[in-house]
Design brief:
It contains no helices and seven strands. With 98 residues, it is mainly β. The two termini are 14 Å apart. It is found in: Cytoplasm.
């Protein structure tokens, strides 16, 4: 997973952008990322953990592989003195092509 900080000005406030890059050696032959909004920005509340995994009811985003755990990965946003106004963040999923 690769992440970087960028700010995007909106009418409401400045939002944090988290870029998540995914890779699997067999990604071309399986629909692993078919349920993710690849290449599209999406908003997520910074107060709710971001969950990726097999369980579509428990996770924010699902991964289409039966070998993936119900909750494979959980990300928590946290506030520091520099980003104390963080309320929402943008997410951008892409797939790494080797």
């Amino acid at each position: 997973i690769t992440s970087f900080h960028c700010t995007m000005e909106t009418e409401e406030d400045l939002l944090t952008c988290l870029h998540i890059k995914l890779y699997h050696p067999q990604q071309s032959s399986r629909g692993l990322y078919g349920l993710l909004p690849l290449g599209k920005r999406s908003r997520h509340s910074a107060d709710d953990p971001l969950r990726l995994g097999r369980d579509a009811q428990a996770c924010t985003y699902s991964l289409g592989d039966p070998r993936v755990s119900r909750k494979q990965l959980v990300l928590f946003a946290y506030r520091t003195t520099l980003n104390s106004l963080l309320s929402k963040m943008f997410l951008l999923f892409t797939v790494h092509q080797p």
